[in-house]
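Lecture 7 notes: from sequence to structure.

We start with a single chain of 178 residues. Read the sequence below before looking at the structure.
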Amino acid sequence: MESYQALRTHIHNEGIIIKKKTFKREEFLKVANTLDTNIYFIESESVRVFFIENLEEHTLYFGHSNSIITALDSFLSNRKTALEIQALKKTEVGYLTKKEFLDFVNSKPVYLKLWNEVLKEIIIHQLDREKDLLIPSTEQRYQRVLKRKPELFQEIPHKYIASYLRMAPETLSRIKKS
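Now the structure, written as tokens:
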């Protein structure tokens, strides 16, 4: 995400104070049914964004070092969300409130343009994700994600990748072995 990196560099260069917080392994940055419009900058390690339905967890996406993460629906609508954001390991983040972030983004046209590029990248990622979910073959889903985001398989525990790929952990193990 080149646009994200550029946006983040401008935030630092402008001296915008980003609050810092460290989350323990499996600690939640955000819990369901709350309003949290903070925008998080992952400094180290990784998080997962998921929701629970019928006692089953469904992983939507991951945030890892040098990425941006938020409960986008809550951020955009100012409403509570069913999404949860959880640290997968001890994770350090910087964050800004929505107001702080939008004041910064709207302060110069170049920043607004970069934010629009970040949103475009997020939308494209979501479209790829939707395609992944519609493919009935577990092997094809695995290959698509492996090709697009090989770093996931180095950083993220396989049980969460299996959830992301909409398959059982055992199925993921079998596919990886073949």
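Residues 109-134 form the longest helix (26 residues). Keep this in mind for problem set 3.
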